[in-house]
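We were asked to recover a plausible sequence for a given structure. The inputs and outputs are reproduced exactly as logged, with field labels preserved.

PROBLEM: sequence recovery
POSITIONS: 258
GIVEN STRUCTURE:
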């Protein structure tokens, strides 16, 4: 009782598994975990039910900003706790913490723009890949990008390079692009993981099955643009689909007035 402890309530998609894996890696150099996972139980709760029982001992509902799967971690003296906070929209809800512990990943939307020349020959295969990855297409349109819209899709790094900036803008406005709004659990991160690095050569070196490795030619003609965060996905949905989406009622979209 002489030493203080730090009690943390953390949130992340797949929270229990991610924290357990992190703690295992941290302890491998000092102590081998038993098959029962008894060491893990001394520093974290392993299920939503245990999380709920332990969390209410230390926190009230007002202490939480809910929105993602939560878990509880008790960091003992001289232990280390890593907090993986979701980089998405933070929203307060009136429902109980236990509701969120059982809900799991939210159904989210993201935007995929298939750049000029990339979709006209490969659309059927791309749609098949999306279906295999459990994406639902809830919005689709052809669009000829205006220069100001193309500018908004470019990263800050590209904008700092005059030659690269001009090349990207010229290519994006050179023909018709296909814009898709996609829906599934953890949609934003899943799509970014499938696309891979913006340089097709780097994507090819990492994994030849990454989409930019398969359909990209250069850092400019790399096949795809995907929303890089939930905030950007909401911006892109409002930009490309101001008329709304053809998806079932979704709490996330209602909150963002999409």
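RECOVERED SEQUENCE:
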């Amino acid at each position: 009782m002489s030493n203080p402890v730090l009690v943390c309530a953390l949130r992340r998609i797949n929270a229990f598994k991610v924290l357990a894996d992190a703690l295992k890696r941290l302890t491998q150099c000092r102590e081998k975990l038993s098959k029962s996972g008894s060491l893990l139980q001394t520093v974290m709760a392993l299920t939503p039910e245990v999380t709920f029982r332990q969390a209410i001992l230390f926190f009230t509902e007002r202490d939480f900003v809910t929105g993602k799967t939560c878990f509880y971690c008790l960091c003992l003296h001289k232990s280390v706790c890593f907090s993986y906070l979701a980089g998405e929209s933070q929203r307060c809800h009136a429902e109980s913490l236990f509701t969120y512990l059982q809900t799991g990943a939210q159904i989210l939307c993201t935007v995929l723009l298939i750049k000029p020349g990339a979709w006209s020959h490969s659309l059927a295969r791309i749609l098949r890949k999306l279906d295999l990855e459990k994406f639902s297409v809830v919005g689709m349109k052809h669009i000829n990008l205006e220069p100001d819209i193309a500018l908004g899709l470019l990263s800050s790094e590209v904008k700092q390079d005059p030659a690269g900036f001009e090349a990207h803008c010229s290519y994006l406005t050179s023909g018709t692009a296909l814009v898709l709004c996609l829906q599934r659990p953890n949609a934003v991160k899943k799509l970014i993981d499938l696309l891979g690095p913006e340089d097709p050569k780097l994507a090819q070196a990492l994994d030849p099955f990454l989409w930019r490795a398969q359909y990209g030619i250069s850092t400019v003609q790399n096949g795809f643009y995907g929303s890089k965060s939930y905030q950007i996905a909401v911006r892109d949905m409002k930009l490309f689909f101001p008329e709304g989406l053809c998806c079932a009622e979704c709490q996330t979209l209602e909150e963002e007035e999409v």
